[in-house]
Amino acid sequence: xxxxxxxxxxxxxxxxxxxxxxxxxxxxxxxxxxxxxxxxxxxxxxxxxxxxxxxxxxxxxxxxxxxxxxxxxxxxxxxxxxxxxxxxxxxxxxxxxxxxxxxxxxxxxxxxxxxxxxxxxxxxxxxxxxxxxxxxxxxxxxxxxxxxxxxxxxxxxxxxxxxxxxxxxxxxxxxxxxxxxxxxxxxxxxxxxxxxxxxxxxxxxxxxxxxxxxxxxxxxxxxxxxxxxxxxxxxxxxxxxxxxxxxxxxxxxxxxxxxxxxxxxxxxx
Length: 269
Known about the structure:
Layout: E1 3-5, E2 10-12, E3 22-25, E4 33-37, H1 68-79, E5 83-86, E6 108-109, E7 112-113, H2 122-145, E8 154-161, E9 164-165, E10 170-171, E11 176-179, H3 185-197, E12 203-205, H4 218-223, E13 229-236, H5 243-268
Parallel strand pairs: 4-5, 4-8, 8-13, 11-12
Antiparallel strand pairs: 1-2, 3-5, 6-7, 9-10, 11-13
Helix pairs in contact: 1-5, 3-5
């Protein structure tokens, strides 16, 4: 399941035929926002084959955040924002998890066994981390470090979630959630803005997931240490299944961001 460099005795996960983990969209964007989409792709390194899974699994939410990349791309244009899009499936490695997280490389995802992830050695797990997660987040760091006005930078992490978890039978009625951990400023302001402009939407705070150091990466690693305004956005994936829907939701979020920033700025005066 892994290529091995016989001379060095190390695991080589990505071949020259495999693309780098990070695609940077609109790299010269001059807006305040930096967009991050950790689950935007569903590629698998050639060395890992198909992870022992049939093709239809890679259409499901367990393989990637359905619609999230489309929303993020549309927002990059609306906000003149750089977007860092992660190309590999979350079944290979979840780039929104720390190395210590038990579901960094899931053996089972929403009731589906992932044969290619079972019984990995620590070295194999580390190889995925080093080949995909590290360079992706190094690219995020490089973009953040290059900002001309770094303290005004805003980080938005774009994700999507399934309306129903098959393994638990849990329905998720909310349309949209904003996640945050130690700094709720932007997340709560965007919740208020979306609710005001879209009264028919069910908008939640820290749902359908809770944000934490173990279950998230960009928040504790990129946003909080820099003291930057940030929020992790979760959109229900059945609402963003088409390009038109993705553009519509990008517009909703862009308007809400502008209103939230106005509110926050007024509160500081």
